[in-house]
């Protein structure tokens, strides 16, 4: 639920690189290494996130003694268990948090100070490592940990006299926190609003120390299940869950089936800005709603609805159902992704190329969208989508036993980290034995990048104040970087070029000067996979000229004299051609041409409607007006 990664390098230009990245590396990744974490009992993974030093894993533990690689004390029936590792999956520390009852974790996020914020559900009173009493059957239990994991900086309990289950937490831009989950409580404890139905969305905005700034109860007349909250770029929040309710309470649309995706957009103070119900005729369960770099949202869950409502594809059983919406919740595209049997959604995140990775589990064999057979009883199943929701590849990972629900994150452009719960022994993809009944099983996947070739075929055309440099395109490049300098200088100037071009205009340049230039291919959006620079090429700019003149022959007209048509050829130096007008010698406009030059920088036009005589042609080239003459003779 969970975390998504954004890359911030050269944002405006980088988006063009991202569009080429999805198809440039459309092969299924391979297992690079794996790790097991567990004790003598059962451990169940609930979340994984990238940290400053590697990874952090969150789950619950039932192991009552310090065995396997679990080194912390057990407190009750079920405890939070947090494991931190380095980038290679080597354990740095682990900590257990719990009281005498049941403590079920849900979500973890690294905070700006290097520590961690953890949310879940607790039935414990003050006991074990739980320092605050509860209010009802179960409460949100929020813990702020220091960067070493062992030190609990503060703890908070949120709840009423009913059952309250914390499911999602995120640090906000102001240094505080947003927490969200499900509540059956009325006004009681520290809950200030009445229940709307049975289960409601319950969202709380907290300050840096976990004190309540505001809270909202949002629901209809039945049971809403909220799983995801994320802050949006405008300072508001997007809520993702599901609802069977009619139009009632805060819900403005009726249910379309038994249960639907229900997304709610809040402003920075918790007021509803808009909402949308998305579903088919059966059960549609939404678990993730995250902001995307295009200003919209990606929704992920599973569905067993047929073609109905908003759903355009039939279900085979429970399938992944991914829905892309715009910034106001309107559907852009949706895709049902499945094998022949049951799939269960874990999480989704946006990849650096503006595509998506879907992570979960499957009991299906090969068929439909699933290209690999089942390995055991249940396997991890990951599916890579492009920005339009098309499947690029999928990967089935498991042993011959059972792998439970998996979650994923992406630490860099070519690797994915997938983690879940495993009962398998050494078999299939699993090379490590379990310590107990079920353990956390982490798998690091690596996608081998394609060869990133150095461009060749460097050529140039020059004018006194600029040069057009060209090279041969590289198939796997998602962009290019050109650097140039006056011959003999130490400092380089640089220019980035989109993948759909293999030339650029360098300007302003000094006239009558020799320049050195090189070009490299860029094959990954985070600049970790580039070609070497090409060998140096050189060009000399033309002689200095008077202001307002080009010093070049920009336009050639042929045949000259002409009869029924003329062809206009432009100098290769120009990047933008437009505004072609033909005048008589008396200055009268005879013809306007709107056709753009072809790839060969030529335009052929009919002159059948022009009288014989001498004409002047005027063309705007790179915002400079150029002129030529031709004659029509019949």
Please state roughly what percent of the residues sit in beta strands, choosing from under 5%, 5-15%, 15-25%, 25-35%, 35-45% or over 45%: over 45%
The main sheet orders its strands as: 1-28-27-26
**Termini gap:** 77 Å
Radius of gyration: 31 Å
> In which range does the helix fraction lie?
under 10%
Round the mean pLDDT to the nearest integer and report it. 88
Structural class: mainly beta
State the total count of DSSP E strands: 42
Q: Please report the number of helical segments.
A: 1
Q: What does the main sheet amount to? A: 4 strands, antiparallel
* pLDDT < 50 stretches: 1-25, 546-552
Shape: elongated
Outline the fold blueprint.
Blueprint: H1 11-24, E1 30-37, E2 43-50, E3 54-61, E4 79-86, E5 91-97, E6 103-110, E7 116-122, E8 139-145, E9 152-158, E10 164-171, E11 177-183, E12 200-206, E13 212-218, E14 225-231, E15 237-243, E16 260-266, E17 272-278, E18 284-291, E19 297-303, E20 319-325, E21 331-337, E22 343-350, E23 356-362, E24 379-385, E25 391-397, E26 407-412, E27 415-422, E28 439-446, E29 459-462, E30 467-470, E31 479-486, E32 493-498, E33 503-506, E34 514-522, E35 537-540, E36 555-558, E37 565-570, E38 577-584, E39 589-593, E40 602-606, E41 613-621, E42 624-632
Antiparallel strand pairs: 1-28, 2-3, 3-4, 4-5, 6-7, 7-8, 8-9, 10-11, 11-12, 12-13, 14-15, 15-16, 16-17, 18-19, 19-20, 20-21, 22-23, 23-24, 24-25, 26-27, 27-28, 29-30, 30-33, 31-32, 31-34, 34-35, 36-37, 37-40, 38-39, 38-41, 41-42
Structure description:
The structure is a single chain. With 634 residues, the protein is mainly beta. 2% of the residues lie in helices and 46% in strands. A four-stranded antiparallel sheet has the order 1-28-27-26, with no helix packed on it. A four-stranded antiparallel sheet has the order 2-3-4-5, with no helix packed on it. A four-stranded antiparallel sheet has the order 6-7-8-9, with no helix packed on it. Strand 8 and strand 9 form a beta hairpin. The N terminus is likely disordered.
